[in-house]
Specification:
36% of the residues lie in helices and 23% in strands. The chain is built from nine helices and ten strands. The chain is globular, with a radius of gyration of 18 Å. It binds adenosine-5'-triphosphate. Adenosine-5'-triphosphate binds next to strand 2 and helix 1.
Amino acid sequence: MNRVGPRTARLTARGVVRRYGGIAAVAGVDLSAPPGRITALIGPNGAGKSTLFDCLAGTVRPDAGRVLLGGRDVTRLAAHTRVRLGLARTFQQIAVFPTLSVADNVRIGAEQRHRGRHQGRGRDVRAEDADTARALALLGLQRLAAQPAGDQPTGVLRLVELARALAGRPRVLLLDEPAAGLDTVQTGRLASVLRGLADRGMALLLVEHDVDLVAELADTVYAMADGQVVACGPTAAVLADARVARAWGGAAPEVGDT
Ligand code: ATP
């Protein structure tokens, strides 16, 4: 259960369905986020993006369909078990511990990974230190490491959350609106960090409303509407697709709009 296996993995959804009452929030979605690629999920409000994300991460159980991580069926595994298998996520709503330092917030991600790998054998504090330091450096947060997280602005907290996810050294990273609240400089840094992670073999899947960022980063875009994937492919082609325009009420967001 705790063996992480190969360093890279593909995340796959096959026929995923999730209903709330009479509504299918996700109505049979097939999606693939391959290693070394940035995959984006776009769609108007209520399209089902967050629900699909929750199904992939394990915080919501699909009513039908399967979720595969590196070929392994994880549909019935809890979210924390998926984390140990190398699936990390960040949230739309920032969730940090305000009284803990920036570094200790990041360390939580490293602890989760090493707790899984060293069950019953105590903590591997040195390995946790190394993963924490590496993640802080990757996001340029070393200078703020000792500061209370609660004192930091939203833009920094987004980076802290991302660093926490990376401290667990995931194979697949789910990002829910990672650029929300970031300024231009931070967004630029985020973009280059995400590209670097993909270049080193990580599979990234992001939900993002910032179409410029999607156009800059994504290798493949899935557009959702009414719980279904209405288009999939390179960003420019997907945004030009008439079904995507219809999903946005006639005018898909254009690069430069946001
Ligand atoms: P947004 O961009 O606004 O976050 P979204 O594309 O992420 O939207 P979802 O939040 O997944 O869309 O919602 C899809 C549909 O499922 C909506 O009709 C929503 O009202 C419904 N829904 C989502 N979560 C629940 C829930 N817990 N209970 C009932 N209905 C829900």
